[in-house]
Amino acid sequence: MATHPAPGDQQDEPHAEPHPELQAASELLRALAAPVRLGIVRELAGGHRRVHELVDALGVSQPLVSQHLRVLRTSRIVTAHRRSREIEYSLTDEHIAHIVLDAIRHAGEA
């Protein structure tokens, strides 16, 4: 029995490049694709937070939170601002909070 690729599968057009907005969306979702990073974004949806606040809220280690914050900063999902001796993190775009919060709500409905 012959199998057919799904519509839109890259096998349909092996040399086709994805549209730039699809590529950017894919990179955004890849950067968010970790439970700790989703938790960080969920916490930051409520406003800026310092690392120790994220550690307390998520119940994970400080090095792990810092590692995930680095990924989110590199992907320009969060920004960092120094406040005296500490760094506060915030979302660069509130649309990201909506994406993550909607995904969490949707997963909870399953």
TrEMBL record:
Tell me if Metal-binding is a UniProt keyword of this record: no
A Gene Ontology molecular function term for this protein is: DNA-binding transcription factor activity
> Could you tell me the keywords of this UniProt record?
DNA-binding, Transcription, Transcription regulation
SMART domains for the chain:
HTH_ARSR
Its signal peptide is none
Disordered: region residues: 1-21
Q: CDD domains from the xrefs?
A: HTH_ARSR
The protein's matches in InterPro entries, at most eight in alphabetical order, are given as: ArsR-like_HTH, HTH_ArsR_DNA-bd_dom, Metal_resp_trans_reg, WH-like_DNA-bd_sf, WH_DNA-bd_sf
Superkingdom of the source? Bacteria
Task: Please list the residue ranges annotated as the HTH arsR-type domain.
Answer: 17-110
Supply the NCBIfam families for this chain. Answer: HTH_metalloreg
Please state what the protein is called. DNA-binding transcriptional ArsR family regulator
Native source organism of the sequence: Kitasatospora kifunensis (Streptomyces kifunensis)
